[in-house]
Amino acid sequence: MEGQDGMAEHIGDEAAAMMSDGVDRLLREQVDTALLSEAEGGNWSAALWAKLERAGVPQCLLPEAAGGAAVEPALALRLVRLAGYHALPLPLGETVLACALWHQAGGEPLPGPWSLGGDLLELRAAPEGMRVTGVARRVPWGGAVAQVLVCARDEAGHARLLALSPQRASARAGENLAGEPRVDLEFQGVVLDASRVRPAPAACADGLLPYGALLRAQQMAGGMERALLYAVQYATQRTQFGRPIGQFQAVQHMLAEAAGHCAAATAAADLASAAWGGADFVFLVAVAKSRAGEAAGRVAESCHQVHGAMGFTQEHPLHFTTRRLWSWRDEFGHEPYWQERIGRLVCAAGGERLWPLLVGG
Amino acid sequence: MALFRFDSPRFPPQAQAAREQARAFLADELEGGRFAPHRSSWSTFDAAFSRRAGAAGLIGITWPRRYGGQERSGLERYAITQELLAAGAPCFAHWVADRQSGPQILRQGSEQARTEILSRICRGECYFGIGMSEAGSGSDLAAVLTRAVREGDGWLINGSKIWTSNAHNVHYLIALARTGAAGEDRHGGLTQFIIDMASPGVTVRPILNLAGGHEFNEVHFQDYYVPDHLRLGEPGQGWAMVTDELAFERSGPDRFLSDYRLLVELVNRVGTEPDAREAVEIGRLVAHLQSLLGMSASIAALLEKGLSPNIEAALVKDVGTAFEKDIPEVARRLVACEPGLDAQSDVFAQTLGNVVLHAPAYTLRGGTREILRGIIARGLGLR
Ligand SMILES: Cc1cc2nc3c(=O)[nH]c(=O)nc-3n(C[C@H](O)[C@H](O)[C@H](O)COP(=O)(O)OP(=O)(O)OC[C@H]3O[C@@H](n4cnc5c(N)ncnc54)[C@H](O)[C@@H]3O)c2cc1C
Prior knowledge:
The complex is a heterodimer.
Chain A: H1 13-30, H2 33-40, H3 46-54, H4 73-85, H5 92-104, E1 114-126, E2 129-140, E3 147-153, E4 159-164, E5 170-172, E6 182-192, E7 197-199, H6 209-237, E8 239-240, E9 243-244, H7 249-274, H8 281-307, H9 318-328, H10 335-349, H11 351-359
Parallel strand pairs in A: 1-3
Antiparallel strand pairs in A: 1-2, 2-6, 3-4, 4-7, 5-6, 8-9
Chain B: H1 13-31, H2 47-55, H3 74-86, H4 92-108, H5 111-122, E1 128-131, E2 147-151, E3 154-162, E4 172-178, E5 190-196, E6 202-208, E7 214-227, E8 231-232, H6 238-251, H7 260-270, H8 276-304, H9 310-334, H10 347-362, H11 369-380
Parallel strand pairs in B: 1-4
Antiparallel strand pairs in B: 2-3, 3-7, 4-5, 5-8, 6-7
Helix pairs in contact in B: 1-3, 4-5, 4-6, 6-9, 7-9, 7-10, 8-9, 9-10, 9-11
The complex binds flavin-adenine dinucleotide.
Residues 129-133, 138-139, 163-165, 216, 361, 364-365, 367-368, 370-371 of chain B line the site of flavin-adenine dinucleotide.
């Protein structure tokens, strides 16, 4: 689907490029093997988070009046892709999206960092206020963040956004294959202050699953690019039979095919980002998450094959990226989940309606 | 970061208008029953269709007005192209001329060639074929043996081309011939010529394809005379021109929409209440297609800016033709149906039959998958 003209209240292209170069540089300098290994040991990288906050990245999607940088959603999501590229072990994308959605819903500013949960919870009126019940499963950094944004339905079936403090939940710690915290937060009739409940904007009518899925799609696009660059670099350096293995056609073709998957996934993730706030947002997120998830498995496979045994060690950094790809593809809906949603929509509309769905009009 | 350039382009509102223009034309064609989408595709030759498309202002629209064009943007052309493909319209008569020959003549042709030829293409009356491949020169295009030597004010051509689509139906070919020494990189000494099929010295022998269709041919040149004004570019510069031309030939939506109609028929056949497996498989194809549309739109925007995104074009064609080949396999998995083109077969079976028989060509024509992967690998810095 085709992008729309940028809106005037957003920062210009040059400022956007500066911001994304700045984030790239910061992450390149800071996210090294040591930091990644400590994060897997359960360490919250406070110094790096503080640097990101000083650079205005977590709040970048907020309007300037709310302390943000008013970047376009497409740029904010390019920053998320950079975070994926560098395997940043912090909930940057989660915070960017959650605080922006909270603001959009009319919520008062709350301190970050934020996370978001894809599960729908239950909201019930009680004499002492609103009570929330349910389990938000596998919440990214659910134990470390200040707020978790979730969607809940009240008795009348209306969707509400809730800014929950994880301290009010009983938590069960967990982590994904890359050692990123994924925490089950169970809320058992927790009473909420009215300031923490907002009517969900239309954009969240489907809950928050699509937003989490978009984050992971962009992170996967970044991660795949990183894995490919590792593999290309390795293929030009590693010599066997008297020449760099990248000169073998079988190796070239493996990487060329992987590059095609990576490019398709990236295009899909960008289409979804550009559709932020549009009527086709959820459809394009479904496309992005399922295409990126499929690509991630293929790209990780090829990149490992090219690296031989070296890529199967902790000594080579490839695993920081590929273990994330193997987890991200299953978070916020795996490929069949989103494919089925697309398929049902397309079939219900009929074959002749497919084309306008794809290109508009 | 940034291995390749695939930015989401911003389309001008005119592109939507062009889309509507094409849709109105196609709706009228379908209503009049003037083509059968389940048995045609862009590589179906139908001169009457192309004349109507020309009259409707859908051909050569980006070219200067003085040559019959409309000076519209490449993105408008891109939208029209997509619509023709999605409708399964039989476009092959004007396709090559509109996609690559016309632009090549505009960039590299003599003033006389432009004036004599371009406006006829725009009217849908003048068709082109591609004379690149030879018996000994398929993927290895630099190995062409067809020779052109100076003769008075023009050139004499001797040799043979093969797999020349529509040579029996078109007015002109653009042929690649050797005019000088190959040089060390083997890319020197090649020149492109416009071949007028009505002139003496050129003969066409049909080669039937496996589906029984007569699409491609063998073409023989015996002391065939080309006047110099039908030469394209400077002598010896043919390789660079062929490379540019292939960026147009490879990058378009025709590299992933050849069998779009089968996807439409599959959705119709499965019906409005698919089971989980059907929904997943169809959803997967749609996700692939939407991603390809995103990739190819960004290439259209790069071409419009005058860039030559050869590597990106190779990526789209490689991913796109793999997708095209996937559609019939998914369709077979979901629908128990014997493909057939016989009278007993219904629309779905005929669409499937047509695609199964033509799919082998998807990853060959316009550069094989393996050659494209070599180009991508070069883009990655591996060669
Ligand atoms: C339907 C159709 C229409 C066509 N129309 C035209 C036309 O109008 N005009 C025209 O000029 N040509 C046309 N062609 C020809 C087309 O461009 C060639 O088929 C193509 O370039 C491949 O050449 P080839 O068939 O000689 O195969 P070959 O080059 O002999 O290749 C055979 C196999 O070997 C592989 N191979 C070759 N070299 C390498 C390598 N270096 N590394 C790895 N693998 C390799 C190929 O990928 C392929 O799998 C058409 C072809 C088809 C199928």
